[in-house]
Write a structure and sequence with these properties.
2 helices; alpha+beta; five-stranded antiparallel beta sheet
């Protein structure tokens, strides 16, 4: 199975966090939305979710890709869904 590899970019720190994986881009965005809604507003606005690669669970290979912005923390502020 092919999973997406994602990472949060913190604009205050000026760097990406530790990579994680998710089933697909949509589930990654949903997980990010839940995370953001539980952050203080000032921290949430500093974070963006990026697709940075893929992970093949069958052979254990991680492949990088051109970074793709999936969501910004500010997009989910005030959203309950």
């Amino acid at each position: 199975m092919e999973r997406v590899v994602i990472a949060l970019y913190d604009s205050v720190a000026g760097e990406f966090g530790v990579p994680a994986s998710s089933v697909n881009e949509q589930t990654a965005v949903r997980e990010f939305q839940v995370l953001v809604q539980n952050m203080p507003v000032m921290v949430a606005t500093d974070n963006e979710l990026y697709l940075i690669g893929s992970y093949d669970t069958k052979n254990g290979v991680i492949t990088s890709c051109e970074h793709k912005l999936l969501a910004r923390g500010v997009d989910f502020l005030g959203s309950s869904k």
